[in-house]
């Protein structure tokens, strides 16, 4: 058993040692870090090396390995009313190319507890984001595939109280890139390395309502991130068990210089195929590693959080061949409630 | 009499109150004017008062007038039910001044055509009174920039329209032009009756001298005396000579009479020209009747000023000194009595630290970002009410002994009750914008006291910052400030993460927990 997981464990250990990124809280693009898709949520976000769908989001380098066209759509809701909706169309262009289109809505349509400086309650507001990705993949050889995607982002959010109403501001960012490489070590072990959100910025222009005649520009830089992922296929009780592990490191200001407090986020989860048409998922994710472990262990453990997730996948062959229903749920890291996602995939 | 905004206008200081007024003046409001009880805003732009009556104008995006009156009410000014509220939604332009007298309050608005607004204290009714000035081009300005109640009628400094007299009992409106005999009925006034517009002869201020029968009327070039009883003008024997030969007086911005001093000394904010400079600067001067000269009292420009007993001058400043930005200062000066022997640049008897401590200690709040107005209203022969208006509410000392440095101010601000047990929590304001420094967490615990922790998370529930951790707090019923558990100086978030980096625009979530098991969550928007 130790041999089987050696590669994954080594990768995690080496990565956590050599990679550095600063505190992630409050950096740009936080809404992009949450898992997309019920399967990924069920494994607590550990999904990059072998996603079964939404490849354009998770790993565009695998698009060229698709055997059939794939359509997926679904949505979810989180503890605070945050909502997701997503859809994807992915297909192979023989012999070596794969392509995919992905659209994600993510937002909080229930910002209904906002008060102004005079403690007047305002009834309605919404935080809305749309992220679109166009992905392309290329089959280099039987072990190595490469891919990338270009993203378009739109964000609209409340930006002030004006004349008894909540005013909103929106912005669009075009042209950030993801790059991915996937290495198939064996039939059981897949490894991936990805650079995500390269060049992702959002330019804002917020109004200052007190001095109403000028706007205040603000550039929201979404940190470059490096993702290392592994997927190992084993057996448990004579059933297939896929164990995924993702390690994410964020580089504020898109700088690769080590920060004062190195930090990485680890997610790990597995999918166990109970029957041919039924799978279960379990995961533990978003575990932060940073310099506080040794420098300020009290703070580290006092603020320690993680995501505990589970899910199920059921084949809907009676409805249509190649269709599956996925459900995932997870704790939300602050123990406020349960996050849930459900989606349907169809391969044809 | 509203000194602060006039001072600010004339001296060119971009005070918060004036900015707010200007912004408001350009906005069109479709809303109605409504009346009610309570406070609508904690941004108090200016205050006017007389006896046990105080008016204030508050707001930023929309504005309202608040009034408290009567002995009983003023004993509990922090009870919102004691404040009469009038939202100014129906008025499309700025409010200039407000005067109290005869059971009425009258305000002037910068509308076209100009109007006066009247509030009847006995009935609580309001009405607008149109001022029908003759049709004129834009070179004429009929704005009533100053209002005063004297001898049973209201007077207004109507800029190019001269001195306006309005008897609100019979609605008789007459205007008088400085130095010119006779009165003109406003409705019959012709454009040819009005002197050609001249910024140096426009009426910009009025004060009572000695008693209500004599008005001191200010024009930029000259001061006039106007007899209320017989409507006669007399050029005041107040020249423009300055005791400092290097200083020449250029124009009067505003003139004040200290009625708390039996000698009625005259102070003036004057645009002066120094021998060494080509441009004007604004000084506070005091008239020396014996020498017939103006003494430079202060080589600074207060944005608000009020007189206290014992020749105390309370002033607010908002200016840059010595290359460093100095803002938000309340100072107390001690002048010499009478109108002679003024001291140039008198030493402040107490400085902003004195006010800072008195204003903040009781509530553990931060010193206000902007002080907008200060007003002393005599109560007895040695004490009075001292009001300080700010961007964070109204500070009140109900038994102020001039020169004393003891006693806390009462903070009067809109503070709706908050359900105990963390049933209701919110961030104030819920949107962090370029206009504010962050937010305060409003909450109220159930237990008499508990240790509270507040943390902020981003959209992905990554910890952004621990605001407080295990800090002791009292419930609102057990002595918590303003009936809550919030300690405003600590329970606030400036929109930065634990490393001090400004957080990215987006939605953030907070979690408030206590060691007794209470907890609550809420949302904050960072939009800057």
Total of domains of chain B:
3
Look at the structure and give the mean pLDDT of chain A: 87
CATH C-level name of chain A: Mainly Beta
Q: For the terminal residues of chain A, how far apart are their CA atoms? A: 36 Å
CATH topology term of the largest domain in chain B? Neuraminidase
Report on this structure:
The complex is a heterodimer of chains A (348) and B (528). In chain A, strands 1-2-3-6-7-8-9-12-13-14-15-16-17-18 form a 14-stranded antiparallel β-barrel. Chain A has helices at residues 6-18, 38-42, 55-58, 292-295, 297-302; strands spanning 70-77, 83-93, 97-108, 114-115, 121-122, 127-139, 144-162, 165-184, 189-198, 201-207, 215-221, 224-236, 239-251, 263-275, 278-290, 307-315, 323-331, 338-347. The two termini of chain A are 36 Å apart. Chain A has 348 residues and is mainly β. The radius of gyration of chain A is 21 Å and the shape is globular. Chain B is mainly beta and 528 residues long. Chain B has three domains: 3-130 and 237-412, 6 Propeller (Neuraminidase), CATH 2.120.10; 131-236, no CATH class; 426-526, Immunoglobulin-like. In chain B, 6% of the residues lie in helices and 46% in strands. In chain B, the strands form nine sheets. In chain B, strands 1-5-4-3-2 form a five-stranded antiparallel beta sheet. In chain B, β19 and β20 (266-274) form a beta hairpin. The radius of gyration of chain B is 25 Å and the shape is elongated. At the A-B interface, β4, β5, β7, β10 and β11 of A face α2, β31, β35, β37 and β38 of B.
């Amino acid at each position: 058993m130790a041999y089987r997981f050696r590669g994954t464990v080594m990768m995690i250990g080496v990565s956590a040692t050599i990679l550095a990124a600063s505190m992630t809280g409050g950096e740009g693009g936080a809404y992009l870090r949450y898992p997309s898709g019920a399967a990924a949520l069920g494994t607590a976000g550990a999904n990059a090396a072998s996603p079964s769908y939404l490849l354009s989001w998770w790993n565009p380098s695998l698009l060229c390995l698709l055997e059939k066209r794939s359509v997926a759509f679904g949505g979810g809701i989180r503890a605070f009313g945050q909502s997701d909706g997503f859809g994807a169309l992915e297909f192979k262009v023989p012999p070596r190319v794969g392509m995919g289109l992905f659209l994600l809505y993510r937002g909080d349509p229930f910002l209904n507890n906002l008060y102004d400086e005079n403690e007047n309650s305002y009834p309605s507001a919404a935080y809305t984001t749309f992220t679109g990705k166009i992905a392309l993949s290329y089959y280099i050889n039987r072990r190595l595939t490469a891919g990338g995607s270009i993203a378009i982002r739109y964000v609209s959010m409340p930006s002030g109280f004006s004349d008894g109403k909540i005013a909103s501001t929106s912005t669009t960012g075009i042209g950030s890139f993801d790059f991915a490489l996937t290495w198939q070590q064996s039939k059981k072990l897949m490894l991936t390395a990805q650079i995500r959100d390269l060049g992702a910025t959002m330019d804002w222009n917020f109004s200052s309502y007190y001095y109403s005649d000028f706007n205040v520009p603000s550039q929201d830089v979404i940190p470059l991130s490096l993702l290392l992922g592994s997927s190992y296929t084993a057996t448990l009780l004579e059933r297939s068990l896929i164990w995924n592990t993702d390690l994410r490191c964020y580089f504020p200001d898109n700088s690769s210089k080590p920060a004062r407090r190195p930090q990485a986020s680890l997610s790990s989860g597995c999918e166990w195929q109970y029957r041919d048409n039924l799978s279960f998922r379990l995961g533990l994710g978003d575990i932060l590693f940073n310099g506080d472990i040794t420098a300020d262990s009290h703070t580290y453990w006092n603020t320690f959080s993680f995501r505990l997730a589970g899910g199920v996948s059921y084949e809907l062959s009676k409805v249509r061949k190649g269709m599956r229903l996925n459900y995932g749920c997870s704790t939300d890291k602050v123990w406020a409630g349960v996050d849930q996602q459900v989606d349907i995939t169809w391969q044809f | 009499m509203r000194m602060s905004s006039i001072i600010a206008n004339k001296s060119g200081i971009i005070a918060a109150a004036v900015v707010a007024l200007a912004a408001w003046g350009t906005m069109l409001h479709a809303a109605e004017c409504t009346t009610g009880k309570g406070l609508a805003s904690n941004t108090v732009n200016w205050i006017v008062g007389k006896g046990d009556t105080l008016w204030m104008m508050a707001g930023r995006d929309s504005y309202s007038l608040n009034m408290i009156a009567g002995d009983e009410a003023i004993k509990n000014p922090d009870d919102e039910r004691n404040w009469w509220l009038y939202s100014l939604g129906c008025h499309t332009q700025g409010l200039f001044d407000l005067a109290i007298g005869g059971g009425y309050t009258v305000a002037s608005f910068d509308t076209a055509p100009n109007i006066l607004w009247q509030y009847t204290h006995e009935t609580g009714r309001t009405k607008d009174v149109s001022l029908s000035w003759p049709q004129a081009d834009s070179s004429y300005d009929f704005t009533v920039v100053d209002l005063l109640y004297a001898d049973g009628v209201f007077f207004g400094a109507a800029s190019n329209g001269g001195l306006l007299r309005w008897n609100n009992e019979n609605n008789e409106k007459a205007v008088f032009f400085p130095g010119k005999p006779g009165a003109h009925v406003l409705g019959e006034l012709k454009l040819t009756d009005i002197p050609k517009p001249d910024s140096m002869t426009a009426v910009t201020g009025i004060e009572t001298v000695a008693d209500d029968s004599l008005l001191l009327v200010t024009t930029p070039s000259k001061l006039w005396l106007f007899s209320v009883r017989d409507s006669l003008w007399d050029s005041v024997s107040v020249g423009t000579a300055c005791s400092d030969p290097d200083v020449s007086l250029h124009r009067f911005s505003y003139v004040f009479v200290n009625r708390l001093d039996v000698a009625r000394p005259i102070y003036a904010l004057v645009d002066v020209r120094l021998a060494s400079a080509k441009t004007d600067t604004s000084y506070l001067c005091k008239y020396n009747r014996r020498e017939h000269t103006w003494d430079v009292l202060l080589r600074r420009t207060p944005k608000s000023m009020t007189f206290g007993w014992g020749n105390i001058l309370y002033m607010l400043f908002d200016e840059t000194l010595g290359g460093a930005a100095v803002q938000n200062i309340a100072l107390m000066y001690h002048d010499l009595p009478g109108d002679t022997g003024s001291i140039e640049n008198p030493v402040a008897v107490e400085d902003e630290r004195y006010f800072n401590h008195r204003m903040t200690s009781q509530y553990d709040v931060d010193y206000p970002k902007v002080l907008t107005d200060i007003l002393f209203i005599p109560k007895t022969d040695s004490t009075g009410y001292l009001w300080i208006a700010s961007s964070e509410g109204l500070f009140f000392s109900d038994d102020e002994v001039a020169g004393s440095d003891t006693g806390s101010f009462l903070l009067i601000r809109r503070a709706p009750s908050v359900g105990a047990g963390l049933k209701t929590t919110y961030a104030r304001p819920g949107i962090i914008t370029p206009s504010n420094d962050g937010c305060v967490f409003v909450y109220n615990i159930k237990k008499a006291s508990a240790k509270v922790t507040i943390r902020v998370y981003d959209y992905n529930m990554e910890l952004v910052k621990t605001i407080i951790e295990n800090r002791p707090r009292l419930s609102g019923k057990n002595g918590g400030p303003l009936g809550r558990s919030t300690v405003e100086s600590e329970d606030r978030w400036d929109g930065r993460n634990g490393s001090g980096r400004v957080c990215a625009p987006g939605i953030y979530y907070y979690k408030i927990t206590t060691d007794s098991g209470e907890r609550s969550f809420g949302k904050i928007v960072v939009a800057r």
